[in-house]
């Protein structure tokens, strides 16, 4: 009780009204009165009152879960009003054929370019967007998925990264499976390979540290799923789109990758 305060004539004991002998707790909720008894006998008096309850932490309400996007409905609605001239302008900006980004299902909303993303069953699960300043985002509520051509053909399958590398793969006469980034979505890629009946596939990793590391991990996952893989990278360029823009053709690509080992 060494920290308790002594009463004074200016601040007398609230129990006996006197300005001496008594003490009051630091929070002012308990008095130790030396004149008036209570059931709580103390060495030098009697306790009166109750200590203040510790303040309860303020309960911050959790935000409601973000509602899932109906990605298929969003995409089909925007695709209907997409402007061909805007798509042409984006193709020029990206250095890709307009037909290649169209095959990837690209559409425009104002000046924004959008690509559908697919889950392992082939359903649209999200929308990736690209802005004029280079920012890459997703429509709120999207789930990460892969980028696929709007139809399944007979071209050689190729796993690459992102929608624009996927469009470059289309321009080079591959059938792409575009991962949303250099890591993640391995289960969707495997499910898609199984769905299309691929038991052998080329995996093109971006030619940087994260790209190569992510490519090796994806290759390991595919091999564990009994899909044969050869891991390759663009020659002299960071990614497949840059290589295509620099003049790579299918003949050049096949020649560069011809010695890659299948495992």
Please describe what this structure looks like.
This protein folds into 2 domains: 1-51, no CATH class; 71-257, Dna Topoisomerase Vi A Subunit, Chain: A, domain 2 (3-Layer(aba) Sandwich). The chain is elongated. The longest helix has 16 residues, at 209-224. It is of the alpha+beta class. Strand 12, helix 6 (209-224) and strand 13 (228-232) form a beta-alpha-beta unit. The chain is 30% helix and 22% strand.
Distance between the termini: 78 Å
Query: Nearest-angstrom radius of gyration?
Result: 34 Å
The main β sheet shows up as: 5 strands, antiparallel
The residue ranges in which pLDDT falls below 50 over 5 or more consecutive positions are none
Jot down its keywords.
single chain, 263 residues, alpha+beta, Dna Topoisomerase Vi A Subunit, Chain: A, domain 2, 2 domains, 4-stranded antiparallel beta sheet, 13 strands, 22% strand
Write the topology of this structure:
Blueprint: E1 5-6, E2 23-24, E3 30-33, E4 41-42, E5 45-49, H1 71-81, H2 84-94, H3 98-103, E6 107-109, E7 112-118, E8 124-130, E9 136-138, E10 156-161, H4 162-171, E11 174-179, H5 186-196, E12 200-204, H6 209-224, E13 228-232, H7 240-245, H8 250-257
Parallel strand pairs: 10-11, 10-12, 12-13
Antiparallel strand pairs: 1-2, 2-3, 3-5, 4-5, 6-7, 7-8, 8-9
Explain briefly what this protein structure is.
The radius of gyration is 34 Å and the shape is elongated. It is an alpha+beta fold.
